[in-house]
Amino acid sequence: MTPGQFNQPKLRVSGATKVYSTRSGDLLAIDRCSLDVMDGEIISIVGPSGCGKTTLLWSMSGLHGLSSGEVLLDGAPITGPNPEIGMVFQDANLLPWRNLDANIRFPFEIKGTRPDRIWIDELLNRVGLEGFGGRFPRELSGGMQQRAALVRALSYKPSVLLMDEPFGALDAFTREEMNRLVEEIWLDTRTTIVLITHSIDEAIFMADRVLVLSARPGRVASVHEVPFARPRSLEIMSTKEVFDLTNTIKAEIVGERQSRYRQGGAAGAVGAQQATG
Amino acid sequence: MSETDAIPEFRTKAGRTDVGITNMSALTSGPGIRSAGEMLAILFVAVAVIGGTEVLLLVFEVPQYVLPRPSEIATALVVEFPQIAPHLGHTLVELLCGFAIGATVGLILAAVITQFPFVEKIVTPYILLLVTTPMLALVPLLILRLGFGYEPRIIAVALASGPMVMINAATGFRRVDQGKIALARSYGASTFQIFWKVRAPMALPMIFVGLMIGSIFGLLTAVGAEMVGGGFGLGNRLTSYSSMIQMPQFFAVVLILSILGILIYVTFFLLGKKFASWEA
Known about the structure:
The complex is a heterodimer.
Chain A: E1 11-22, E2 25-37, E3 42-46, H1 53-61, E4 68-73, E5 76-77, E6 85-88, H2 100-111, H3 117-127, H4 142-154, E7 160-164, H5 172-189, E8 192-196, H6 200-206, E9 209-213, E10 220-225, H7 240-262, H8 264-276
Chain B: H1 26-29, H2 36-59, H3 70-113, H4 117-132, H5 139-146, H6 150-174, H7 178-186, H8 191-228, H9 234-243, H10 247-275
Helix pairs in contact in B: 3-6, 3-8, 3-9, 3-10, 4-6, 5-6, 6-8, 7-8, 8-9, 8-10, 9-10
């Protein structure tokens, strides 16, 4: 990966390390992760479960600090939640006691600013939720909830959108629809997007670059360019390039697990020794 | 979009089986009355039960001092109501004052204590003690110190209802959804904003449960305290009528207490439905 020398990355993560102290000792979640996200780029992060993807994303959003390393947004270090960053969470994370309108108003109530009604209506139209403002989250399907969450995250025009497995709970069709919707919105806004996902297909379809994290502790194992023009059609998913890329990434994620499995006996013995010693 | 027709209700999560305002009681789990036929059937059963009691008591010549007939209770209620009404007023004053004090203190304590887990650990045993101790036991002592006026009763009601409100509200406040808090924090919310905009609404269903249980406990304690001593209140009427073996009047007062209890329940149920219906 060679980031452009001439322009500053939108988001730069350098040497990000996060240690959680748990009852059973310190847990190294991510270890010296570095990546540059250019302005207007879409990056997907994939990796085996528990590899620290969410930890990395939360660090980027300023929701929690790093043990060492830093995150720079437009060159300035991120130390806490930043109005330039929008988050989309694993489940839609709508507040169940507020209807859709009030949910979208929520960020503005917290920030004490006035919502841009025209922009929000435009977003609602785009995601097909016009006229649903009075509905409560429980009255919306999973896809609609996630679309509402997307509108909420974009409502205050962040320049970076961080998405934490946003469509993991949706069925495959809704998921594809959501992927195209995000791309559509991206074509309009050119928001920088970092997307965490479990689906290699989704990662490739969405991203300019796919970042593969290793198993815990999370390290950047590899980065893959996805050289397809936008708007992309689902047909690219059946090209040989994507097929090969999918297999490469899969091998990286699964292969790593296999190698751990093969060494399982030895590793287990070491673990047992440590436990007794 | 194709979803514009009838929207089926989607449950956000199936695992939410906390106690909520809407699943507190079997009363609410029954479906609403659907048709005139159902209404008629319900009325018919009610008439049969009350009328049947009336007839049975007549046929077996049960003396009035053992169990008065429903018609006698109804008559006593109408005839004696002007005499009972002031006592009802006294009981309501005790209940309202005591409950207002108890619920306010309970809510504030719950909100503050749950913010500091360490304090909560220290305080919880005493709260449990207050919840499990029948506050009626303190009434003779309170009367000894404060006389036969409103004060001992109001204090007893507050002591009975407050811990109930507090322990339920605390359960609500403790029910933290880290995702929702992270969401608020991602917008830069302060601790205060997180409390008012996330924790408090989230606790609301449990707060209503607490208020409902607390007020019912308050009513029990108010009546109990009135039975212990003092010359006024519905509890005092109960002891007075029973000592004079005026059973229709006695049961009329019991009936008033039942209606009072149901009214309290329905009030908080409706309030809960209005303000905390999102959790069902």
